[in-house]
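Thread: quick sanity check before group meeting

JM: Hey all, I'm pulling together slides for Thursday and realized we never actually wrote out the predicted structure for the chain we discussed last week. Dropping the sequence here so it's in one place. If anyone has concerns about the input, flag it before I start.
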Amino acid sequence: MLTSFFSTSKPIHHVLMVGVAILLFIFKMLVVPHPGASQLGFLYPMLSFLVFLFSMAVLNFIVKRNGLTKQGTYVPLAFVFLCLALPNVFLSGRIILAMLFVLLAFRRIISIRSQREIKKKIFDASLWLGVASLFYFWAILFIVPLFIAITTYAFKDYKNWMIPLTALACLALFALVYGLYLDDLRSFLEGYVEWPSYNFTAYSSPGLILPFSIILTLFIWCASRYLILMGKAQRKMKPLYFMILITAVIALFIAAVLSPIRNGAELYLLIPFLAILISRYIEKSKSQWFKEMMLWLIILLPIASLFL
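JM (edit): ok, ran it. Output follows.
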């Protein structure tokens, strides 16, 4: 059974997932007609794919290091296959890069609860989020979990509240110098802020509406179950669970309401945190057949999307 096979974490699991991901990626880029692929060539999507694989490793490290799930491989499994089901995701390298920096910031945010090097972690997280916003402006909203972490674990020192502003101010200064160096500061600033788009024409495609519907259904189902698990969790773990859920909700809000991109790639922002919710549900659910069905659905989704 799939749940038994992926309930442990061994090198074979990761090699298998990466191998399948590479095969599906090559098939999507070379065989399936892809709007925009001819203009971008193969190099750009390939670089995006490599950043995607590195993001998977970062996400897996965060999960294992902080005990967000048990020692299975459900998180990287859900992350890889749900992302591969999204059309155009590897043609949107800016989102993939932004999400990598968000994950690096998320790693530092969660580690604040250890009460060690708090100021350094707050500064690092703020800086990573600032860099992420340079690639995808609305990624800056992921600073909300950082302030939740400060409120929960480091609220006594008022200086901690000023560190994010200081880090972002430093980054803004470097960005302004860069814009002045190019002698095109106005264009740089106009290109930095990306306004939302509400043109959902692309969602009329079966190749997009299917993964969108399944991802949204999985989020609603697993988030509701996650709330129940959070209520039963130990008191010291509840703030951590709350932070993960809030981060997932922010990701959904950005993708659904604020995204300037409407080709399916914006859903990539949600997948890492949805993968954590899915993993927790599978680990805690007592319905064996439902867990099996969910895993098969996730694995077969990118394959089915190739033929739509």
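AS: nice. The chain has one domain: 2-29+40-305. The mean pLDDT is 87.
JM: adding both to the slides.
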